[in-house]
Design a protein that fits this description.
mainly beta; FN3_sf; three-stranded antiparallel sheet; about 100 residues
Length: about 100
């Protein structure tokens, strides 16, 4: 899977992220959702946002982003392998610099 993440600022304190759904060849199980990890320069750890498999975008709002901050975004596939759920660490990156 190629990097297919788009990040666009929406005002000073929010951003819209979007991505394409993986093709079957990219998955080794049933896709059941996504996990978005937001790592910012002002946080002690990543913010984790779990989304259903039907989502291909998400609006990051004020509580997840702060003004004058740099953030790295990872989109993870959450796959079902047999009876086990696995946050498949097939990371797809996006970056955002909030400086408005």
């Amino acid at each position: 899977m190629t990097d297919i993440v788009s990040v666009k600022g929406v005002g000073a304190r929010s951003a819209n992220i979007s991505w394409q759904q993986p093709v079957d060849a990219d998955c080794t199980g049933e896709l059941i959702g996504y996990e978005v990890l937001v790592n910012s320069s002002h946080s002690t750890g990543p913010v984790s946002i779990k989304l259903p498999r039907t989502n291909t975008s998400h609006l990051l709002e004020d509580r997840q982003l702060k003004q004058w901050v740099e953030a790295k975004l990872d989109i993870l596939l959450v796959l079902m392998h047999g009876c086990h759920e696995d946050a498949h660490r097939s990371r797809h990156h996006g970056a955002l610099k909030m400086s408005m």
